[in-house]
Amino acid sequence: MASVLRVAMQFVGILLSFLGWVLSIITTYLPHWKNLNLDLNEMENWTVGLWQACVVQEEVGTQCKDFESFLGLPAELRISRVLMLLSNGLGILGLLLSGFGLDCLRIGETRRDAKKRLLILGGILFWTAGVTALVPVSWVAHVTVQEFWDESIPEIVPRWEFGEALFIGWFAGFSLLLGGCLLNWAACGTRAPLASGHYAVAETQTQCAYLENGTANPSV
Predict the structure, then answer these.
(1) Rounded alpha-carbon distances, angstroms, from residue 112 to 6, 66, 100, 175, 193
(2) Which comes out higher in pLDDT, residue 60 or 65?
(3) CA geometry: angle 163, 140, 142, nearest 5 deg
(4) Which of 91, 118, 120, 171 is in the most buried spot, having the most CB atoms within 10 Å?
């Protein structure tokens, strides 16, 4: 029963981590971190991401333009680029390491300690990837809220609001955190089953001990 629970936790953990990693990549390149709806022209909407700004017009469609200068961006967008790319890299590294540490993978079956360490390291990487995804998304959301309620800006000026990418980024970050927790819990909270070769070695050693003592094996 313990081994079944351990494998189930590993499967759910790696699945959540993979989902969070995919969503973090989508968040990184989706140009919908902030949205701006113009009251004067309801058929025109503006969206901003980490790499480009887009305008959506009902007649023309969507037109996007890449940012020309990295240093010309606001501080929250510059640092968000770096952190999101770091989250993507940590996520793929965590998938590789934790994948080799899964019990269902027969590679290195006799080296349980090494597989456990890989699983723990993969979980830590997922934790770090989750944090580095939540920080930029929450920072951009905080700046957006501050600017939205800034009393120094005239009320007639349109305000930026949350884009879809922020919600996807929050879901991605929490999925990575939860997946990492499950993997580490599976590695540290439950006992790993012995490999089939270990059972054979233990049984052979027991039989040899009985033969040396000149007694019969009571299990036979």
Answers:
(1) 14, 49, 11, 27, 9
(2) 65
(3) 105
(4) 91
